[in-house]
Design brief:
This protein is mainly α. Helix 1 runs antiparallel to helix 3, helix 3 runs antiparallel to helix 4 and helix 4 packs antiparallel against helix 5.
């Protein structure tokens, strides 16, 4: 992987950990309503799913960072494969989000842009 792909992959890892932390620990905060679309009366009902998705993103973020670390320590193929897996997974998830809830098209684009950029950078 080249330097651009490594930097973008590290950024993706940090973003996923950050968003996952918001999902898992801040979903009740109305400041994030536009992102999570969870009404106060629904907090208890969605808790298990929001926590699951939050930690899912944290784990994916850790996977991206692990791929960067592996690559930087000479395990290029393993690191690139891990980063590519995280990117492809999030592109698929972005498409699923768009299909399931078209109103969240901005969120879908946001989820896909960085992984697409990383895969393009990895190709060069």
């Amino acid at each position: 992987m080249n330097a651009v792909a490594l930097v973008l992959a590290a950024l993706l890892g940090l973003v996923l950990i950050g968003v996952g932390s918001l999902e898992a620990f801040q979903y009740r905060n109305q400041r994030w309503f536009s992102m999570f679309r969870i009404r106060p009366q629904d907090h208890d009902a969605v808790r298990i799913w929001v926590m699951f998705v939050g930690f899912y993103n944290i784990v994916y973020g850790l996977g991206a960072l692990t791929g960067v670390i592996l690559t930087m320590n000479g395990q290029t193929a393993a690191g690139a494969a891990l980063v590519a897996f995280v990117c492809i997974s999030h592109i698929v998830l972005a498409v699923v989000l768009l299909v399931v809830e078209r109103k969240l098209w901005r969120n879908s684009i946001s989820e896909a842009v960085l992984p697409v950029a990383i895969l393009i950078a990895m190709a060069f």
